Amino acid sequence: MxxxxxxxxxxxxxxxxxLVIIIMAQNPKGGGLSGTFGxxxxxxxxxxxxxxxxxxxxxxxGSTIVVLIFLSIILTGKPSQxxxxxxxxxxxxxxxxxxxxxxxxxK
Length: 107
Hints:
By secondary structure, the chain is mainly alpha-helical. The protein has a domain at 48-72. It is built from 4 helices and no strands. It has helices spanning 2-25, 32-36, 39-42, 47-76. Helix 1 runs antiparallel to helix 4. This is Protein-export membrane protein SecG.
């Protein structure tokens, strides 16, 4: 069960790192990494298609992370064994000693 959890965690980490890279590379209002690395020259080579790709990649990676998290919860969230119940202590009382019965003489 732990290998499945480890696999999901690795996939979530990889998708998260890719998502951070794609979000930082986007150029919403003239900033971002694409503006730092020659954003003015990128305007001549079809920035619109690049922005569409970046937006689709962002949504895809975000939804992939959510799906992986839900799958990891569903597949690894169920306990494999039922926890042992705490046994209730059995009352062990000593038997009550009967007091000697006084016999009254019959009249």
